[in-house]
Amino acid sequence: MNQEESDLTDTSSESVAESSENSFSSSSTARNHHRSLHLPTITSSHLNMSNSEDNGAKLFGNALQQFSQMLVSTLSKFSIKIILGDDNYTHWCNPVYEAIRTIGCRSYLDEDNYRDKSLTEEQYDQNRFVICTWILNQCDVTNGERARDELATRDPVTRKNEVDYDPYKLWINLETFHDRITEAKLAHVNRALINMTQLRSDNLKTHVEKFNALLRDYYRFRGDMTSAQAART
Fold first, then answer.
1. Which domain of life is it from (predicted)?
2. Which of 71, 114, 163, 172 registers the highest number of CB atoms within 10 A of its CB?
3. Is 67 within the bounds of a domain?
């Protein structure tokens, strides 16, 4: 590798390193801004409880069961094409949040101990349960089990672990966990880019390919590129 090529590689590495200070501020700001508007939540007054149909889907059972089925049926119409893994939280959380916001239930994710006074206690608990289980079903097995375990509490009387289906807690837990692991991965890639040197066993082509692979990981962990986009570059 001649001096000109070495200078070019070092310059590219330093440029990427300097940009890392703002790596998560943009995605975090976007999520916070994303939550700045409020819509009303679905209430029992929006639902027809008497042997009604929801766009062709028959509702059955008592009023509470029909109330639950309405929310389940509505959420089932959203096609979330990304399943949450360990590397795609930024791209996963936006469509999931948008689906919850579209049906008017965003306050369940934004506000701790949110309570819709238009609902009965049973309807409120059922809303929380349906929203939580729908979000958990958008996760892969590992993330789903981990998130469900974090919702579990130990009953002091029965000494059994019971899952507290709290949408706010679930959403915060997912965000906190994935921000933490993504920051760690980004820091690792950033250090690798800064310290990267060409091995004697690598020709220039191999060295550039390794550099580009690290660069793809860098932009992927920043949230600027999905895993699918990175695979195509």
1. Eukaryota
2. 71
3. yes
